[in-house]
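Much of what follows relies on a compact textual record of a protein's fold. A record is reproduced here so that you can trace the correspondence yourselves:

. . .
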Amino acid sequence: MENTTIRKRIFELADEEYKKFQSKLCPNNDNIIGVRLPLLRKLAKQIAKGNWREYLKIAKEEYFEEIMLQGMVIGYAAADIEELLNYVTEFVPKIDNWAVCDSFCSGLKFTKTNKECVWEYLRPYLSSKQEFEMRFGIVMLIVYYIEEDYIAKVLQLLDKPKHEGYYVKMAVAWAVSICFVKFPETTMQYLKNNKLDDFTYNKALQKITESLKVNKETKTLIRNMKRR
C-alpha cells in the first residue's frame, strides 16, 4: 500500500465517538483521528504481509494513528531479531504518549522467543532521561518479564528509576502491582525495603488493592503500609 492509500484507509476507519474517548485518554494529543485498535491492527497485518520495510522507510506520522500503525507493523513484521530491534530503536523516539508506548510494547511478541537478547537491549532504556523511553523499558518488563526467572531482577531494576515524569512513576507503580499479584511473597519483601518515592510507592499499593486477584485480608494489610 502507498502512503496516500494508507492515510485514506485510516480516515475511512475513523469513529467520531471513539475519537472523543481516545482524546480524553490522551489529552495532550490533538492529532487523533479516532480508529479503534482492532481495526488498526488488521491494517498493520496487511502491511506486514507486503513490503513493510519500504512502508516503514516512508511512513507518514502526522497523525496519532499513523505512528501507532508503524509500531504495530514492527510487531507483526517477520525478520531476524537484530533487524527488528533496529526498527524498535528507530521507533522509540517517536513515542510521546502512554497509549502508543503500551500498544507498541504489547505487540513486540518476538520478545517471548528472544528473552535474554531483548533483556540486554532494554537496559539502557531503564536509565534513560527521556520519560517515554524509560516508560517503554518498564512496560516491556511488565508485558514479558514478570515471571519466575526474572522477578528478582525486575524488582531490582524497578527500584532504580529516579525519573520525575508522571508516566514513568505510574508505569513503575503498575509494574510493582503486577509483581505482587504474581509473586506476592517476593514483592512483599521488596515493599518492606525499597527506594521508591512516596508517590510511586503509595500508587503501587493502591493498584494492588484494586486488583481482583488480591484477597480482602491482604488488601487491608497493604492499605496499612501506606506512607503518610
About this structure: Residues 209 and 219 are 5 Å apart (CA to CA). The chain has a mean pLDDT of 95. The first helix runs from residue 3 to 12. The chain is about 65% helix and 0% strand.
